[in-house]
Write a structure and sequence with these properties.
Elements: E1 8-10, H1 15-25, E2 29-31, H2 37-42, E3 50-53, E4 63-66, E5 69-73, H3 78-83, H4 85-90, H5 92-99, H6 104-109, H7 112-116, H8 129-135, H9 163-169, E6 173-178, E7 181-186, E8 206-213, E9 218-225, E10 236-245, E11 248-257, E12 264-265, H10 269-273, H11 280-293, H12 304-320
Parallel strand pairs: 1-3, 2-3
Antiparallel strand pairs: 4-5, 5-8, 6-7, 6-8, 9-10, 10-11, 11-12
């Protein structure tokens, strides 16, 4: 049986109280639903002496439309986001992504903020301490060598969260609060390429909310590849969004994740699509461009060539959702 290490559990009721506790504890960690952090603690990947729960912080809850934006509290559960009427109306791809995370038990506990802050994953990292010690610890935890690349000092553990690529495609912004006050950051700028800590969020900052511009002429799509249609982390996710003038594309964005340490915006799509009708020929051209750019690494147990072959397949699936 895998057991949790000892820790102190704190239950603040405001964001400011949570931030103050983090400064006091220094090496503590925030926890919301705990669906990722708690299993990682059992594997010995994290052993924080203090856990600061965000479940009672009402400031992190709520979904509302105001000032031309949809604001979603980071403490909202994935289950509630998947069925929320405002999210379904203005950000259906986000509802789809939230509704495909893990299984219903985990969606009822896991939160939007937790999904945005999800730790990266790798075949050589997400194992018990016994397993990792037998192989030799990896660069991300206790070791000095990346078992995937064999060289370099950057971790290539995969970003495996479902909602960030959708939020990036929709030009969303996150609200962060820390010891130095509050700030905003586009979700597209939130992530970096090092899987050890792949976020520009400081450890002491609380991710409070996500804001999504409401654009009636924007169409959205989302597709996810995984070994089973429940529970499993993604092997690939594709999020697409297109601004349309009737049936003509004025702008289109595609974002993929689960291939590297951060989500990737696919380049060159606007050059291919602007001024064209979203038809089968354009979808095929965009899928081919995605296939050229995406080269998965051996950071998951599934064959990399097959994962790469699935990129255009799932890009087509996501883009097909935009056709009306």
């Amino acid at each position: 049986m895998l057991r949790l290490p000892p820790f102190r559990y704190h239950r603040p009721v405001t964001v400011s109280e949570a931030v103050a506790l983090h400064l006091e504890c220094e090496t503590g960690q925030y926890v919301a639903g705990g669906t990722d952090l708690i299993p990682n603690m059992k594997h010995g990947l994290f052993e924080p002496p203090d856990l600061i729960s965000l479940r009672r912080v009402q400031e992190l809850r709520g979904v509302e439309r105001r000032n031309g934006e949809l604001r979603v509290g980071a403490g909202e559960t994935l289950a509630s986001i998947a069925t929320d009427p405002l999210v379904l109306e203005h950000a259906p791809a986000l509802a789809a992504a939230a509704g495909q995370v893990a299984g219903p038990q985990l969606r009822n506990a896991g939160t939007l903020g937790g999904n945005l802050c999800l730790d990266t994953r790798c075949t050589y990292y997400n194992q018990t301490r016994f397993w990792r010690e037998a192989l030799g610890f990896c660069l991300k935890k206790d070791g000095s060598v990346c078992h995937v690349t064999k060289v370099g000092k950057k971790c290539v553990a995969a970003h495996s969260a479902d909602t960030p690529p959708v939020l990036m495609s929709l030009d969303a912004t996150v609200e962060l609060t820390g010891p130095d006050g509050s700030r905003e950051l586009p979700v597209a700028d939130l992530f970096v390429t090092d899987g050890i800590w792949n976020s520009r969020r400081e450890p002491s900052e609380v991710l409070c909310a996500v804001r999504i511009p409401v654009r009636p002429d924007r169409r959205q799509g989302y597709a996810k590849l995984r070994q089973r249609k429940s529970i499993d982390f993604p092997l690939l996710t594709v999020a697409v969004a297109a601004d349309m003038a009737g049936d003509v594309v004025t702008s289109v964005r595609g974002v993929v994740t689960a291939l590297g340490a951060r989500p990737r915006v696919l380049s060159g799509w606007d050059e291919l699509a602007q001024g064209r009708r979203l038809d089968a020929d354009l979808i095929e051209a965009l899928a081919a461009r995605a296939h050229e750019q995406c080269r998965p690494l051996e950071n998951m147990i599934v064959d990399v060539d097959w994962r790469r072959a699935m990129v255009p397949v799932y890009v087509r699936k996501a883009l097909a959702q935009l056709v009306r």
